[in-house]
Design a protein that fits this description.
Layout: E1 7-10, H1 15-28, E2 33-37, H2 43-47, E3 51-53, H3 59-69, E4 73-76, H4 82-87, H5 89-110, E5 114-116, E6 119-120, H6 144-163, E7 167-168, E8 170-172, E9 174-176, H7 189-199, E10 202-205, E11 213-217, H8 218-230, E12 242-243, E13 247-249, H9 251-259, E14 266-269, H10 274-279, H11 288-294, H12 302-318
Parallel strand pairs: 1-2, 1-4, 2-3, 4-5, 5-7, 6-8, 8-12, 9-11, 10-14
Antiparallel strand pairs: 11-13
């Protein structure tokens, strides 16, 4: 992307969108990044650049925004996440699929913009190899979110092969950020635990102590996302979705990393319905295709992430209104 490009972020108020909008506005200029979400937004994304209220199930509204701003790159992040979608399966399927179809159809007609659509490790299931999960492997997801992401991967690949739509995708692991609140995902404990460590000194985890899952710090996720969109088309050899990985850990390990900074921090474990979701997902990911094809490489390990998370969350808490 260059400063002549105009970017549209759908679902900009979510965990990834909040960080992505800020990052892209810093790189391209605020007026070049149009943020949208289904609800009105204040704060950074609503006040620091163009913002529009859009429901991604309204294809006409999306098409009008794309035309109005002559959009060259669309990041389609609007979705109902794993734990939330399990509580409302029909709406989860409808939102996750209809929004994608609307965008793919607009791209098929216009051929004027590039799409990023996120997939997830939720596409894998209990029959998938749990260790070093391959790029191409058994995919039998057991959640509405995973089923919708697997179907979405197939449709993205189909629209590329049949219509030449330049759509690119990453299978995100659990994402951890200090800039946005947990959004209803099974891996969100790894965000909430930092907040509770600072605010309460204790945390009740909804997964068991030894539940290992693939995770990634948000700056690495943004690097992966933007680098994939920057990559020359001939380097993007997988048009379903790329595995990406950074770190894998369980709740007791992240707790120990926090205790190095906050020695009195305590964690208890009370697994709920999200435990079954987590148990169906991989523990580590083979992302050699992404590393080979377009040079993916993470920067943060658990130690560096914990230090950065706590530093920035403390800064947020130190910002108090002046009297």
């Amino acid at each position: 992307m260059s400063t002549s490009d105009t970017v549209l972020v759908l679902g900009a108020a979510g965990q990834i969108g909040t960080d992505l909008v800020m990052r892209l506005r810093n790189e391209l200029g605020s007026d070049k990044v149009i943020a949208t979400d289904v609800k009105n937004q204040g704060g950074a994304i609503g006040n620091d650049g163009p913002f529009h209220t859009i429901d991604v199930m309204n294809g006409q509204a999306m098409a009008e925004i794309i035309d109005k701003y002559k959009v060259t790159h669309v990041y389609h992040l609007a979705a109902l996440l794993s734990a939330t979608a399990e509580k409302n399966p029909m709406f989860g399927w409808k939102l996750n699929m209809e929004g994608l179809f609307n965008l793919l159809e607009i791209a098929r007609e216009k051929k004027s913009f590039q799409i990023f659509w996120p997939s997830s490790i939720a596409v894998f299931g209990p029959t998938t190899p749990a260790q070093k999960t391959p790029q191409h492997t058994i995919m039998e997801p057991t959640t509405v979110y995973g089923i919708s992401k697997q179907a979405g991967e197939r449709w993205c690949e189909y629209y590329f092969n049949k219509y030449g739509v330049d759509v690119r995708s990453i299978r995100y692991p659990g994402l951890i950020s200090y800039k946005s609140a947990p959004g209803g995902g099974t891996t969100d404990y790894a965000v909430d635990i930092y907040h509770k460590a600072l605010d309460q000194g204790t945390y009740e985890c909804f997964l068991s102590a030894n539940t290992v899952l693939p995770m990634m710090y948000m700056p690495d996720a943004l690097d992966a996302t933007i680098n994939l969109m920057h990559a020359p088309a001939e380097k993007v050899k997988i048009r379903s979705s790329y595995n990406v990985a950074a770190i894998s850990f369980d709740p007791q390990t992240i707790a120990a990393s926090i205790q190095k900074h906050i020695p009195d921090f305590t964690v208890t474990y009370k697994p709920d319905f999200r435990q079954a979701i987590a148990d169906s997902w991989p523990q580590s990911i083979d992302d050699s295709a992404a590393r080979t094809d377009w040079g993916w490489k993470e920067k943060f390990d658990l130690t560096a992430m914990t230090a950065d998370m706590l530093l920035n969350l403390k800064k947020q808490r130190d910002i108090t209104p002046s009297h």
